[in-house]
Amino acid sequence: MTRFRESVRSLLREQVLDAAYRLVADDGWGGLRMAAIARAAGISRQTLYNEFGSKEAVGNALVQRELEGFLVGIQRELDAHRGELEAAAAAGVGYTLQQAVDNPLIKSVLLAARGGEDDLLAYLTTRPEPVFGTAMAMLDAYATEAWPDVDEESRGLAVEAIVRLTVSHIVQPVAPPEESARRIARITARIAYPGGRA
Question: Which Pfam families match (predicted)?
Answer without folding.
Answer: TetR_C_35, TetR_N
